[in-house]
Write a structure and sequence with these properties.
The chain is mainly alpha-helical. The chain has two domains: 99 residues, no CATH class; 288 residues, ABC transporter involved in vitamin B12 uptake, BtuC, CATH 1.10.3470. It is built from 19 helices and two strands. The protein has a two-stranded antiparallel sheet with strand order 1-2. Helix 2 packs parallel to helix 6, helix 7 crosses helix 15 and helix 9 packs across helix 10. The mean pLDDT is 87.
Length: 424
């Protein structure tokens, strides 16, 4: 404990800019020397994709080499650069503090995306994992609005995701692709990337309108009725899509154009985090928390509880539809089986693992479950034993998740050494 305390004190004055600089140094080391030198001399067949977890599970004899690789490439450079560059990063952070908060946040996010893009660009598998993880963040934050801030238990998110995926896919295939189902493209394909945001928004609106089919009957009652009706809605959407031949039916729909590269998904994820953060910290968000804690007391304080709950529910559904549209255009194929009870279990696992009533917790939960699922892929069936066991232990010792009831404080996160020492 004493060593951990000293270690924490040693790096407590490093600003976010310093950590980003350290991570950039580590990524550059891997990019230029990871394959030809470091992994080769450590006896590794290739650069470890997810920090070596896949290699270690496939061949335990590689564990020393993988651990050595992670220490040499990531741990030492990040800590060393973060600490030794404080004389540069702290004055730079202090200078950024004088700028408007939004500008400082944009600069940090741009730096972070550059590092993420460089790390993921080493191979296509990393790019796909990062894309799906960012989409999972949107899904997790959006369901946290309902299951966390609203205090209900909704099971309809896969249905909302399916509506967004199919509606946005129909729009892009009909207007910008020569498709065997929809015929020749109506508009020049070159317009597709520029009009793609409107297709995503249309998918989100479709999901929001679909959510009214759940919200209108559910919020006239109390208790667990929402869970039952929302679960029924998910199965209705799945069955409906399976029986609509013009969109592929059970075979699914493929051929979606590649309109969702990593930069686009990153921008939508940041936009989702920003918008939902503003929503839950607004007057509507405070009313939502009041309804969750005591609906009768909220009504007595003139809060329109039913309107508040329906607004939050449709808001969360809208972002689930956006995530579905991005998901469809990343994989370039969707089928009804992708939006079944398995998807629901995955989404619920992410939100409850990370923590309720917390955007930070949703991000942690989405990243953790996605990376853990990919890292344990070599174990095949045993993966679905290990992950539920981890979730059970988290629910026992942290019933509200790893990080709950905590909001993003950008001003505190981006502060300099001087402000950190003052504790502000």
């Amino acid at each position: 404990m004493e060593i951990a305390r000293k270690f924490k004190n040693m790096f407590s004055t490093v600003p976010m800019l310093g950590w980003l600089l350290g991570i950039l140094a580590a990524v550059l080391i891997e990019y230029f020397w990871g394959y030809d030198y470091i992994s080769y001399y450590l006896g590794l067949p290739k650069i470890p994709v997810l920090f070596g977890a896949l290699i270690m599970l496939k061949d335990p004899l590689m564990i020393p080499g993988v651990m050595g690789y992670d220490i040499i490439v990531f741990v030492i450079p990040v800590l060393l650069i973060a600490k030794t560059t404080q004389f540069i990063t702290n004055p730079a952070a202090a200078l950024l503090e004088k700028m408007p908060l939004w500008l400082s946040a944009v600069l940090h996010l741009t730096f972070f995306y550059g590092v993420l893009h460089l790390w993921a660009g080493i191979n296509d598998y990393r790019v796909l994992v990062v894309k799906l993880t960012l989409i999972s963040i949107i899904l997790t934050i959006s369901i946290n609005v309902i299951n966390g801030y609203q205090g209900e238990f909704s099971c309809s998110h896969p249905g909302f995701m399916a509506l967004g995926a199919y509606v946005s896919s129909i729009i892009t295939l009909y207007f910008f692709v020569d498709d065997k189902t929809f015929g020749p493209a109506v508009l020049p394909p070159a317009f597709g990337p520029f009009l793609f945001p409107f297709a995503l928004i249309a998918g989100g609106v479709a999901a929001a309108l679909g959510s009214l089919l759940v919200a209108i009957p559910s919020f006239r009652t109390r208790g667990d009725y929402l869970a039952i009706i929302s679960l029924a809605f998910m199965f209705i959407i799945k069955s409906a899509v399976e029986n609509l031949d013009f969109i592929g039916g059970a075979r699914g729909m493929g051929g979606q154009p590649d309109y969702a590269p990593l930069p686009i998904i990153f921008v939508w994820t940041v936009l989702c985090i920003w918008v939902i953060h503003n929503f839950v910290t607004s007057i509507m968000g405070k009313a939502l928390n009041a309804v969750r804690d005591d609906e009768a007391a909220s009504e007595s304080m003139t809060v329109k509880t039913r309107k508040t709950k329906m607004t939050a529910f449709t808001f969360g559904a809208f972002w689930a539809g956006i995530a579905g549209g991005l998901f469809a255009h990343v994989l370039a194929y969707i089928n009804p089986g992708m939006f079944s009870i398995n998807r629901l279990a995955e989404i619920l696992a992410m939100v409850y693992f990370g923590g309720l009533n917390s955007i930070v917790g949703s991000i942690v939960g989405a990243v953790s479950i996605n990376i853990l699922g990919e890292a344990l892929r070599p174990l095949e069936l045993f993966k679905w034993i290990i992950i539920p066991l981890i979730l059970i232990f988290v629910m026992i010792f942290r019933p509200y998740g790893l990080i709950s009831f905590k909001e993003i404080n950008a001003k505190r996160l981006l502060r300099s050494k001087h402000k950190r020492e003052q504790g502000v």
